[in-house]
Each structure stands twice: as structure tokens, then as C-alpha cells.
Amino acid sequence: MTMLEHRPTSPVPGWLPGATAPRTDPAPLLPDPSPVRMLGTDELKDQDPALLLDLYRRLVVGRRYNQQATTLTKQGRLAVYPSSTGQEACEVAAATVLRPGDWLFPSYRDTLAVVGRGVDPLEALTLLRGNAHTGYDPLATRTAPLCTPLATQAPHAVGLAHAARLAGDPVVALAMMGDGGTSEGDFHEALNFAAVLNAPVVFLVQNNGYAISVPLAKQSAAPTLAHKAVGYGMRGRLVDGNDVVAVHQVLAEAMEQARTGGGPTLVEALTYRLEAHTNADDATRYRGSDEVTAWQEHDPLVLMERRLRAMDLLDDATAAEASEAAETLAARMRAEFHAEPVLDPMSLFQHVYAHPTPQLLEQQHQLAAELAAEAER
Amino acid sequence: MTPTRTVTMAQALNTALRDAMREDASVHLLGEDVGRLGGVFRITDGLAAEFGEQRCLDTPLAEAGILGTAIGMAMYGLRPVVEMQFDAFAYPAMEQLVSHVAKMRNRTAGKLPLPITVRIPYGGGIGGVEHHSDSSEAYYAATPGLHVVTPATAADAYGLLRASIASDDPVVFLEPKRLYWSKADLDTTSAVEPIGRAVLRRPGRSAVLITYGPSLPVCLEAAEAAVAEGWDLAVLDLRSLVPFDDATVENVVRSVGRAVVVHESTGFGGTGAEIAARVSERCFHHLAAPVLRVTGFDIPYPAPMLEHHHLPGVDRILDAVAKLQWED
């Protein structure tokens, strides 16, 4: 007997008729108690080798991207970088389950997913470099801007998915957030709207253990974050977030379910950020080195490489190829970011309104005059 | 039906929504109670029946969720019109409004404009209990990226709402709820004006009352009463706070030389402060007196049995006019 089975499904004494139609069986919605794992299981043999190698390559390039971006912050070339080192499996899987028409709604730590989606790696960093808010065209790659306010992009994903469904388009929206984001009101409102509207949307929570410094135990008293789905009437899935094949598999299933009218899913990926929250954070103040070391043993890249080599899918030559692609990208990042960006001060007034207000036009003239005077000096 | 008929402001708004939905299939309404019930003020009455429950969508009761969902809908090409049930109930959606609705065009270098209209019944004077009478226009007007408009007549309610829905920019559409039942002639065939223009409701040569929304009828009444005092007061209805019609305001103030700004929301840091500053900066040498403000007190909106002490009435307006240094 599941715990909600006592809820009445038909009029009984004391139960008023009306629009209430409680779900009768919450069991299929509950997440499995242990996270889904694929690496190290027999199921891996059924996976497409080309997919496995693709995921591996993306992990290698993603890890290098994270490292290079972090280095650029130390050199003052990037204003800030919230590294996803240790979480690359989630980022890679998110990017690879999306079809061209689908939409990605990333949060600020999800640059890798954005790049994996096809956004130029340098354009994806303009927000964090500080030269523009969103350096890429969201429509061209169906990728919403990197979102800084926590989980506020989740209802956007719901609305877009809902509108797409109304239009009859087979579009799924994938919204990404961290464990801290699940405490925000917008997260809960988004889940509720998604379930009520049966919107084709998938929520991916990367539970990396800390919201800056606050550990999960102080963030939520739920058995898992995936359990939060059940109260809204949607499926919750728990997955090993460092197992790239498992994240890919679970997300792909959720996407398919959404695409075929089965409604939304909340996926919790258990992972760990091996770096601090951002370069401005000191992680040694809130977590011990033993913990970090333990997670380093469970590094998504190490897990995948070890497995693929054991399966004879990966040889030195292929590994070297991936490494070379990663170095090429890193070199491009260095070259581009060591050059000063070209900025146009007059762009401040662009794109505030479709047609600037008279007040903005006045201020625009003011700045133009200031710039002209500066040029004469 | 002849194009001109006498309607309430509520009916004018309902007609505007209906006409917009008939003309453009991308116009979708969403909010709490907008469907079957037709909204607590019946502004969406009959629209679910005519356009279906998807285009007039009853949502879960969550304002951030409502507006956030509308953002995603707009990103996919729809033109959402959101109803916030009461002024103070819109605050949970403030983050969506300020951080996303107002900024999305700018954040994405023009790639994701959000043509969303957020309808908010606002203001007091209807005996509403706590949290049902706020005037929140200053918050919205201080947010770059939003247009902020507020009609004071049935005709403007129709015209401004049509213009707001047609606008490619997000508009906070403030409905003065105490004027919902005021009646006027409405001609829906007359051209819809672009938003951003003030209109002179009453010419006058002594001073001008600059106002908007729920305070317009009060100002017109004050102007009538002022005749007995020997003052010929002009009354200017701003209609739009953002964009602000500096040109019309300047013309009127320069021609009369004295100005009082009247609104019912609190004064400190309010829109009246902005208007008075703009007028002083632009018309200083044409002014015979400082620009005065008549506003609600700087208090949380009072209990309904006391609200008449808070809301600017005719006497308070005339007191201000009396202070305009007539013996200079």
C-alpha cells in the first residue's frame, strides 16, 4: 500500500464533489531509492559505441574548457567563472539529449551545456567576461540566456514548452538548476505549472552538495530532491550525475516522455563541484579535503575513460585526438581573451525598448556629446 | 451595434481584449480566475467561452509562475496578456518583472523581445481590505525596459490596452479599479494612439493639475470647485508614465506658470517627485511658484474606514493651489 492510497477517488461521505481529481497511484512518480548507474553495468554493452566515444570526447574538451576559463579569471581576463569541473557529465548529457528544435534554459554554471548546444565557446562567456550580457543569439541555437537569479528561468521553460505544444510542435524545453535553486519559489511554481499544464519540459537539478557554502542537509529535508516532483504530480528520477551515460539515458527517457505527451520530469543528478563556487569563493572554509578527495575518485572523466578502455572502445590514439581538440579550444580561448574586447559605449542605449523613449534619446545624445568631447581632448 | 456606445471602463477593457484576440491569434490571456469566472472584476468575462480555455487560461495561483510562464510563451511567439488580480498580489512576480520581463530584450541584444502586457488593477477608494489598494506605479516606472500606462477614461482604457497589447515592448497596464464602473462613450473605430502621450482634459490659465489614473476625476472636480475661488485650473492627464510626455507637460506648464502634481500613491520617492523635478528642470524660468505635490501620505495603505483621510481629495488639492504664491 502506497502512502497516499487512502485518498478518495470517488465521492465518499465527507468528500465534496467538484473539480478535485486526485492522482490515484503516486508510486510510478516516486524516484528509485538509488541513483541510476550505467558505467560498470552490463547495460553499457547495449549502448552505441559512437555515442559513448562522443560523450567521452565532450567530457575531455569540457574539462579543459573549465580549466582554461578558471585560469583566465586568475589572469583577470574573465570577471568570474563558476566552474563545472566535476559536473561535466551533467553538462555534456544535457547538451546531447536536445534535438535542434528543443530549447535549453541554462543557469550561470551551465556554460558547458550551452557550448555543447552549439553556441560559440567564446560567445558563451561574454556574460562572465563582462563585455555583454548574452553574447549569443538565443534563437539561433534555441538556448536561453545564462540565468543568474536562481531558478527564475524554470517558469520560462514551462511557458515556452506549453506554447510549443499549443502550436503542435514537437519541442521539449530543458531547464537546468542547482540544488540551491530548488529552494526558490520560482522552482516550485514552475514544477506546479508544468505538471498542471502537462508541459513538455524536463528539469535537471545538478545536486553538487553545496549552495555556495550551505550543504544540502541545510537546504532541504527531503529524502532526495527528486522526491519533490511527486507532490506536484510528476515523475522524479535520481541519477548518478558523474556517470555521463546514465545522465544521458535518464534525460533522454524524460525528453522522450515529454515529447510524446507524457508530461514533465524532474531529474536529480548527484554530482560534486570539485572547484569552489566561483573563483571568488574559498571552499576550504566549508568542506574538508577528505570529501573532495573522495569525489575525485568518482571523477566523471576518470570513470568514463577507465570504462571505455576496459571495453576496448578507447585507445591511446583516440584519447590523444580528444586531448588535442581540447588544447586547440584552450588556445583559442587564450588568444581571444588576451585581446581587449571592442566595445561601443553607444550600445548602452540599444535594445532597451523597441523604440527608445524621448528620455532615452536625450541621454543618448548626452553620452554622444561626452564621447565627442573626450575624443577632442 | 453602432461603434459608439456608452460603456463602463470594465466593459471597455473587456472589449479591447476581445477585439485584440479576434484580430490576432497570438494574443493569449492568463491569470488566476480569468477563465470561467471572467476575473474577479469581470474584465475577461466571456472570453474563455469565445476563445477557449487555452487562450484564456486559468492558471494555478502563483504570480511569479504566471508571469514566468508568460515569458516563455512570449519567447515562443505568443503575445501574452497577464492579469494580476490585485495590486499587492503582483509583488511575488516582481523578480520576473524586473529581472526578466524588463530586461530580456536588452539581455539578448534585441533577439528576445517580450511583448507582454501585465494588467494590474490598482489603487484605493473602493473600501478594499489590506493588500487590495496599493498604488505601485513608482516601482514599475523606476524599472527601465517597462512601459507604464494608466487610463482614466473608458475610451483610454480601450485605446491604451489595444496599444499595449500591440506594443513590442512589455507594458505594465495599471487599471484604476475605482474607475472600473465609470461610464463614458466609447468609439472603438477611432484610431488607437501610440502610448506615451498626455492629454489636456481641461484648459485653464491659472495653474495646471498634472495627474493620471484614479486621481483624474478628483482633479476635474477640484478644477470645477476652484472656479468659485477665482482660479481657472487646467487638468493634464498623463496617461503614460513611461514613456513620459515631457513635451506636452512643458507646453502646458510654460503657458500657465504654476503646477501641482496629484496622485494617490505615497509622495516620497513617488512619481510626483520625478514629475516635479522634470518640470522644475525644464520650466524653471516660466514658473511663478515651486511645483507642489499632493499625494497620499507616506504610510502603508490604511484600513478602508480611514482611507478617505489618506487619499487626496478636492480640499487638499485646493489647499495646494492656494499655496502657489499668488501674490508675487
Rg value of chain B:
20 Å
Oligomeric description of these chains: heterodimer
The string of secondary-structure elements of chain B, in order, is EHEHEHEHHEHEHEEEEHEEHEHEHH
- Cα(first) to Cα(last) distance of chain A is 82 Å
Low-pLDDT parts of chain B are: none
Residues in β-strands, percent of chain B: 15-25%
Provide the spatial order of strands within the biggest beta sheet of chain A. 1-2-3-7-6
Which terms would index this structure?
heterodimer, A: 377 residues, alpha/beta, Rossmann fold, 2 domains, five-stranded parallel sheet, two-stranded antiparallel ribbon, 7 strands, 43% helix, 8% strand, disordered N terminus, B: 328 residues, seven-stranded mixed sheet, five-stranded mixed sheet, 12 helices, 34% helix, oxidoreductase (chain B), magnesium ion binding (chain B), EC 1.2.4.4 (chain B)
Please give a quick description of this structure.
The complex is a heterodimer of chains A (377) and B (328). Chain A is an alpha/beta fold and 377 residues long. Chain A contains 14 helices and 7 strands.
Would you kindly provide a written description of the structure presented here, covering whatever features stand out?
Chain A: Keywords: Oxidoreductase, Thiamine pyrophosphate. Chain A: Its cofactor is thiamine diphosphate. Chain A: One of its GO terms (molecular function) is magnesium ion binding. Chain A: Residues 59-324 form the Dehydrogenase E1 component domain. Chain A: Its EC number is 1.2.4.4. The complex is a heterodimer of chains A (377) and B (328). Chain A is an alpha/beta fold. Chain A has two domains: 25-342, Rossmann fold (3-Layer(aba) Sandwich); 344-377. Chain A has 14 helices and seven strands. Chain A has helices at 49-74, 88-97, 111-116, 126-129, 138-141, 154-167, 185-197, 216-219, 228-232, 244-259, 289-296, 300-310, 316-338, 358-376; strands at residues 103-105, 173-178, 201-207, 210-211, 214-215, 235-240, 265-270. In chain A, strands 1-2-3-7-6 form a five-stranded parallel beta sheet, with helices on both faces. In chain A, strands 4-5 form a two-stranded antiparallel sheet. In chain A, helix 1 (49-74) runs antiparallel to helix 12 (300-310), helix 1 runs parallel beside helix 13 and helix 2 (88-97) packs parallel to helix 10 (244-259). The radius of gyration of chain A is 23 Å and the shape is globular. Residues 1-8 of chain A have low confidence and may be disordered. Chain B has 328 residues and is of the alpha/beta class. Chain B has two domains: 4-187, Thiamin diphosphate (ThDP)-binding fold, Pyr/PP domains (Rossmann fold); 199-322, Rossmann fold (3-Layer(aba) Sandwich). Chain B has helices spanning 9-23, 47-51, 63-75, 94-101, 104-107, 137-141, 154-166, 216-226, 246-256, 271-283, 307-310, 314-322, and strands at 4-8, 27-31, 56-58, 79-83, 117-122, 147-149, 171-176, 183-187, 199-202, 207-211, 233-237, 240-242, 259-266, 292-296. In chain B, the strands form three sheets. Chain B has a seven-stranded mixed beta sheet with strand order 3-2-4-5-7-6-12, sandwiched between helices. A five-stranded mixed beta sheet of chain B has the order 9-11-10-13-14, sandwiched between helices. Chain B starts with a strand and ends in a 6-residue tail after the last helix.
